[in-house]
Amino acid sequence: MSHVKRLTALDLGFLLLEKRNQPLHVAYLNLYSPPPDAGPDFVQKLVERLRSYAVALPPFNQRLEGRFAAGFWVEDPEFDIDQHVIHIALPRPGRIRELLAMVSRMHASHLDRTYPLWRIYVIEGVEGGRIATYSKVHHAVADGVAGTRLMLKSMSVNPDDIVPPTWALPPNGRRAATGLLNAPLSSAARIAGHLRNAVSSLPGIGRELRLSFREYRDKHPDFISGLSAPPSILNRRISASRRFAAQTFALSRVRAVGRALGHTANDVVLGMCGHALRRYLQELEALPDKPLVALVPMSTRRDRTDSGNQIAFFLVSLATHLAGMAERMAAIKRSVDHGKARLANMQPAEMLGHGIAMMAPGLLDMIASARPSRPAFNLIISNVPGPKAQMYWQGCRLEGMYPVSAIADGLALNITLTRRHESLDFGLIACRRTLPHVQRLLDYLEEGLAGLEALASTAPDADELAKRRVLSPPRSEAG
């Protein structure tokens, strides 16, 4: 058997955790405006052009073989493009409301493991003459950063460029070139490889765990452990139904708040989310007394590969127990800075191992209990870098790039956003049954940003803030 690629530990983990009610694919809902000269058959011709690229390249031509540690990716000798490129129309009147409802239903369905684990839907009939694509790929094939890179490879800054679709473009990076083997590795060899990687990172993981234990023992005010998150309705068993909500915010607004208050754009995003979750849970009379804790993924990718998973994560307090916006933002920034400082001393394998070890008790509780009393975290908030310029796909102008992530038992809400050109495109995915009216979070995100803008309008200018940070004495490790 030729052209076989072994599963990584993370690939295997995503495949093993998948259940009927929790498909573990990630997706994008993209909105496009067709070119001005587009005729009535534009979408039909676009789909025909996409299907004409009937030969897929790795990883898009690879399906899963084997099970557990003996699993591997193998080229599909009967690859069928019609299984992967689907043309549908949005029911009238074609509002964004109907589009989001359609995506909610499609995201709840599993990818068929007898085929390569990806699919793209081309959707016509969106209001304003627009078209949309909903494209999903299994998390075992690509993480968020890799998935975004794969998508952007098929786009151009020139509206006249017609670039081949993602599956017809050669992969980037060393992993794609060297990950294909002439024969499948034995399961014993695969397990041995995983063990070697794990053992080599053990000293660093042990060092960081000892430091974490000291911070926990000394009650470091900014230390967040896998036991810090309070029980909440966000951490219940989920159904198979989904609710997707999406909205775009101007990046200039977020950056202006950050400059005025001395925060990064990511800090401001977390502040918006903290405010939105506080308001939403207050409305449901379900706000915990302790602050919600978010797991924030970060890429450890140090090459230009565009497949596989290379991620780590840290925990951040969203300070939802604080009513004052200024106090909440200050607490969030301290938590973020502390988490980043800790990760700066670790190698990628150490980051992942330390994070899993810290959260192990809470993760086990989330897996075993319908209502965990000690969740490892309350939700995931992920910020994925997107294109820095206006992009075009198949001659169409990109108007929105909304991530549609995954949720699981004990994790009923995921907030992911893409930084695109001058915009932040938020995608919220939730269990429809567990979290009612989750679209209200969009209103509260806007309310949170407006509140931060009001706070920034009374702040000293950026130069004075920078001077204060330089003159401030450094914080000791204990606080």
Any overview of this molecule?
By secondary structure, the protein is of the alpha+beta class. The chain has helices at 9-17, 42-51, 96-107, 144-152, 173-178, 187-217, 251-261, 265-283, 325-343, 348-368, 440-456, 462-471, and strands spanning 4-6, 25-33, 62-65, 72-75, 85-89, 118-126, 130-138, 242-250, 293-299, 311-317, 379-385, 392-393, 396-404, 413-420, 423-431. Strand 3 and strand 4 form a beta hairpin. Helix 7 crosses helix 8, helix 7 (251-261) crosses helix 11 and helix 8 (265-283) packs across helix 11 (440-456). 43% of the residues are buried.
Strands across the major sheet, in which order? 5-6-7-2-13-12
**First-residue to last-residue Cα separation:** 58 Å
Strand content: 15-25%
Helix content: 25-40%
Provide the low-confidence segments as ranges.
173-199, 305-309, 464-479
Radius of gyration: 23 Å
Q: Average pLDDT value?
A: 83
Taken in chain order, the helices and strands follow as EHEHEEEHEEHHHEHHEEHHEEEEEHH
Number of strands: 15
Broad shape: globular
Number of helical regions = 12
Query: Main beta sheet: strand number and arrangement?
Result: 6 strands, mixed
Kindly name the structural category. alpha+beta
